C-alpha cells in the first residue's frame, strides 16, 4: 500500500486484479473480476454495478473508494490535442494529454509524479517536485483519457509515460498502474503499445529488465556529451551515461525491444557536429532509433543565463542529416499539443 493511501480509504481502481481480490476477501474471486470489469468500463461508483447485489454495493461503498477524488479541467487545442488537468484531494495538480494524429490514432500521455525531481533545465515540469503519484492516480489519467476517446467513438491505441515526472523514480506505483491497465480481465491494453520514457535511471532500467513489465523504453538522451548533459540534465551527475548504457544493454539482452533515444533539440546548444557524433557513439551496440524533438517553448526557461530558443528549421535539418550520415535511424516528433501547453516539456501544474 503506498504511503499516500495508508491513512486514507484504499482506492480499488489502482489495484491489479489479484491484489484487489485479496483486498476484498473473503468475497469470492469472481467479485473482484466483476469490479475490475466495471472499472475498465469507466464506472465511477459502486452504485452503477448492477450485477452486484444491492447490499454488497452498499458495503463496498462504505469500505472502499472506487476511484480517486479528482477535479478535472479540460483544455482542447486546434490540432485535436486535449489536455486534462487533474487536481487531487491534497491539492496536487497534474496533467495528462490525449494526442491525436492525422490518421485519427489516439495516444495517451500519462504523468507519474506531481512535478519532477530531475530538474532538466529545458522542461517546465522540472521546476518543482511535490510527490509521487499513486497507482490509482496514474490509472485515473488513463480512464479519463479513454473516456474522451470513447466520446469520439475512437480508442486509445498507444500509451506514452512521458508526462510529468520521471517514471523510473516511481516504478513501484507505475508497475501497479500498468498491471491494472494491461490486466486481461479489465482494461486489457497491450504492453507492446506502452512506452516508458526515462531521463536515465540505471537501477530503474535494470529493474524493468529483471522484473518487467515488458514495455517499450525510451531514453531522453538529449546529448551524449557528459559535461553538457550534466548542465542540461543534472541527474547525469548521479547517473553517468556509461552506467545508463550498460543498463540499456541489459534491458535489450533480457528481451527488451528497440530503444528510442530522444533528443530535445535546443537551438544553438546540442545540435553541434560533436553532438551528432556523440549520439552515434552512444547508440553503437544498441538496437536504437533516434527521435528528435525540437524544443517546445516555455517562457522563462534559460541555460547558463541565456534564454532557451527553438532550433531553426535549417539547424534541425542539418542535425538530422548528420545523424543519418552516421547511420542512425532518425524520426522527428510532430509538435502536437503546443496550443494547450501540452507538448513535451510544457506540462507544469502542481
Ligand atoms: S524532461 Fe522529464 S525527467 Fe526531465 S525534468 Fe522534465 S519530466 Fe523530469
Outline of the structure:
This protein is α/β, with parallel strands linked by helices and about 350 residues long. The protein has helices at about 5, 15-25, 30-40, 55-65, 135-150, 170-180, 200-210, 225-230, 240-255, 275-285, 315-325, and strands at about 70-75, 80-90, 95-100, 105-110, 115, 130, 155-160, 195-200, 215-220, 260-265, 290-295, 300-305, 305, 330. The strands form 3 sheets. The protein has a 10-stranded mixed beta sheet, with helices on one face. The protein has a two-stranded antiparallel ribbon with strand order 5-6.
Q: Kindly provide the radius of gyration, computed on alpha-carbon positions and rounded to a whole number of angstroms.
A: 21 Å
Secondary-structure element series: HHHHEEEEEEHEHEHEHHEHEEEHE
CATH architecture of the largest domain: Alpha-Beta Barrel
Question: What is the CATH superfamily of the largest domain?
Answer: Aldolase class I
Q: Ligands bound here?
A: iron/sulfur cluster
Structure report:
The chain is of the alpha/beta class. The relative contact order is 0.13. It has helices spanning 3-6, 17-24, 29-40, 54-63, 135-151, 171-182, 202-211, 226-232, 241-253, 273-283, 313-325, and strands spanning 70-76, 82-88, 93-100, 106-109, 113-115, 129-132, 156-161, 194-198, 216-220, 259-265, 288-294, 302-303, 306-307, 330-332. Strand 8, helix 7 (202-211) and strand 9 (216-220) form a beta-alpha-beta unit. It contains eleven helices and 14 strands. The model has no long low-confidence stretch (mean pLDDT 93). It folds into two domains: 3-63, DNA polymerase, domain 1; 70-340, Aldolase class I (TIM Barrel), CATH 3.20.20. Bound molecules: iron/sulfur cluster. The site of iron/sulfur cluster has 13 residues, from loops.
Amino acid at each position: 500500500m503506498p504511503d499516500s493511501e495508508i491513512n486514507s480509504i484504499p482506492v480499488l481502481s489502482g489495484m491489479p486484479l489479484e491484489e484487489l481480490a485479496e483486498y476484498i476477501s473473503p468475497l469470492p474471486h469472481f467479485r473482484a473480476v466483476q469490479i475490475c470489469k466495471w472499472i475498465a468500463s469507466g464506472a465511477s461508483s459502486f452504485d452503477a454495478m448492477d450485477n452486484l447485489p444491492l447490499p454488497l454495493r452498499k458495503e463496498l461503498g462504505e469500505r472502499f473508494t472506487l476511484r480517486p477524488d479528482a477535479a478535472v479541467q479540460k483544455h482542447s487545442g486546434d490540432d485535436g490535442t486535449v489536455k486534462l488537468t487533474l487536481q487531487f484531494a491534497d491539492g496536487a495538480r497534474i496533467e495528462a494529454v490525449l494526442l491525436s494524429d492525422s490518421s485519427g490514432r489516439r495516444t495517451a500521455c500519462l504523468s507519474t509524479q506531481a512535478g519532477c525531481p530531475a530538474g532538466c533545465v529545458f522542461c517546465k515540469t522540472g521546476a518543482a517536485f511535490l510527490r509521487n503519484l499513486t497507482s490509482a492516480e496514474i490509472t485515473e489519467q488513463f480512464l479519463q483519457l479513454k473516456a474522451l476517446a470513447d466520446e469520439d467513438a475512437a480508442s486509445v491505441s498507444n500509451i506514452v509515460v512521458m508526462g510529468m515526472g520521471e517514471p523510473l523514480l516511481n516504478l513501484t506505483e507505475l508497475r501497479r498502474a500498468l498491471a491494472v491497465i494491461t490486466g486481461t480481465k479489465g482494461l486489457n491494453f497491450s504492453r507492446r503499445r506502452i512506452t516508458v520514457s526515462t531521463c536515465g535511471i540505471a537501477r530503474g532500467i535494470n529493474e524493468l529488465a529483471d522484473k518487467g513489465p515488458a514495455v517499450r523504453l525510451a531514453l531522453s538522451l538529449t546529448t551524449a556529451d557528459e559535461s553538457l548533459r550534466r548542465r542540461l540534465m543534472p541527474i547525469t551527475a548521479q547517473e553517468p551515461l556509461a552506467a545508463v548504457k550498460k543498463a540499456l544493454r541489459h534491458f535489450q539482452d533480457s528481451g527488451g525491444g528497440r530503444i528510442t533515444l530522444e533528443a530535445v533539440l535546443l537551438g544553438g546548444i546540442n545540435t553541434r557536429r560533436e553532438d551528432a557524433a556523440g549520439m552515434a557513439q552512444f547508440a553503437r551496440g544498441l538496437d536504437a532509433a533516434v527521435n528528435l524533438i525540437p524544443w517546445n517553448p516555455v517562457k522563462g526557461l534559460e541555460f547558463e543565463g541565456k534564454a532557451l530558443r527553438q532550433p531553426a528549421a535549417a539547424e534541425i535539418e542539418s542535425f538530422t542529416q548528420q545523424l543519418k550520415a552516421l547511420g542512425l535511424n532518425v524520426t522527428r516528433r510532430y509538435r502536437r499539443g503546443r496550443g494547450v501547453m501540452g507538448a513535451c516539456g510544457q506540462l507544469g501544474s502542481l
